[in-house]
Design brief:
By secondary structure, the protein is of the alpha/beta class. It has nine helices and 13 strands. A hairpin with a 4-residue loop joins strand 2 and strand 3. It is globular, with a radius of gyration of 20 Å.
Length: about 300
């Protein structure tokens, strides 16, 4: 039997999966991400955890075809430029992790890798080309065309969250620009919109009783109950997202656009809110590009990391 290891490296946790060579997930686990001391222990911790898991399973490293890893930063030829969330500058992940764990290492940007996971084993497996959009604390993206990740010249391909959608915005995005999609369509952005509308209006809203503790989950829950402030925030955000995705489709012309991340837990309600502006924008290709939800949840990253090996 041959195996592979898929690793999804996040800012707070590292999710790992042990797969058979045909893509069957046989075990998955996680460890905290130690970002202290500039993240110098992260790769050491991953290598130790993987080695312990293989030993417990009685698997010799000679049986393991490789280790794939998705990283929250731009990756080019196994080298990460920088990862602000991890405290990293330039790190040769392929070389360093490979030396530490004794396995061949394959690496990519985390959103691109999650897209590969959905493409190979999730809702994207029915299509030849997809765009994946991850709506979480930020907005991530990945583009897969005929099985190939479009990572770009230096690893920044698929950075959908930093498309400028409002040139008149004066507030800065985390990236330093102003008016990025991430400022409106992320969980953070939707919450900020709702808080802004609450401050500007005296209109009744159940969100007021929650104060600063209001979450994006609360906003979608109340929007489903026709709360006017919640609906206003969701409608504005999803209108921008749908229009942006339609613009991407006119460049990429994918078979499917897949929505993932924590915000996607709003389910079909979310799709119904995106679809009007998406359909309006894709006037030439309306009905040909499917808009759907991801199915792998928080396992997409580890699946995609495994498929990097393949």
């Amino acid at each position: 039997m041959r195996y592979g290891v898929g690793v999804d490296l996040g800012g707070t946790a590292v999710k790992m999966g042990l797969f058979t060579s045909n893509g069957e997930l046989i075990d998955n686990w996680s460890i905290p991400t130690d970002t202290s001391k500039g993240g110098e222990n992260i790769l050491i911790d991953i290598a130790k955890s993987v080695s312990v898991k293989l030993a417990v399973k009685g698997i010799d490293k000679k049986q393991v075809e490789g280790l794939g890893i998705g990283i929250p930063g731009a990756v080019s030829n196994g080298v990460v430029d920088k990862c602000i969330n991890l405290g990293w500058g330039e790190v040769d992940v392929k070389k360093e992790l490979g030396t530490l764990c004794g396995l061949e290492v394959f690496s990519g940007n985390d959103a691109n890798v999650a897209a590969l996971g959905e493409y190979e084993a999730g809702s994207g497996r029915f299509y030849h080309s997809i765009v994946l959009v991850t709506l979480g604390t930020g907005v991530g993206g990945g583009i897969i065309i005929d099985g190939n990740i479009i990572s770009g010249h230096c690893g920044y391909g698929g950075e959908i969250g930093h498309i400028t959608v409002n040139p008149g915005e004066t507030e800065s995005c985390n990236c330093g620009k102003c008016g990025c999609l991430e400022q409106y369509a992320s969980a953070t952005g939707i919450r900020n919109l709702a808080l802004k509308y609450l401050e500007e209006s005296d209109e009744d809203s159940t969100l007021r009783s929650l104060g600063d503790d209001v979450t994006t989950k609360d906003i979608f829950s109340e929007a489903k109950n026709n709360d006017k402030i919640a609906l206003k925030a969701v409608d504005y955000s999803m209108n921008i997202l749908g229009t942006t995705l339609s613009n991407i489709c006119h460049v990429i012309n994918p078979e499917a656009v897949i929505i993932s991340g924590g915000v996607a837990k709003a389910g079909d309600f979310l799709i119904d809110k995106i679809k009007p502006s998406f359909d309006k924008g894709t006037v030439y290709i309306d009905g040909e590009t499917k808009l759907c939800l991801a199915t792998l949840g928080d396992k997409a990253g580890m699946y995609g990391a495994f498929y990097l090996i393949r």
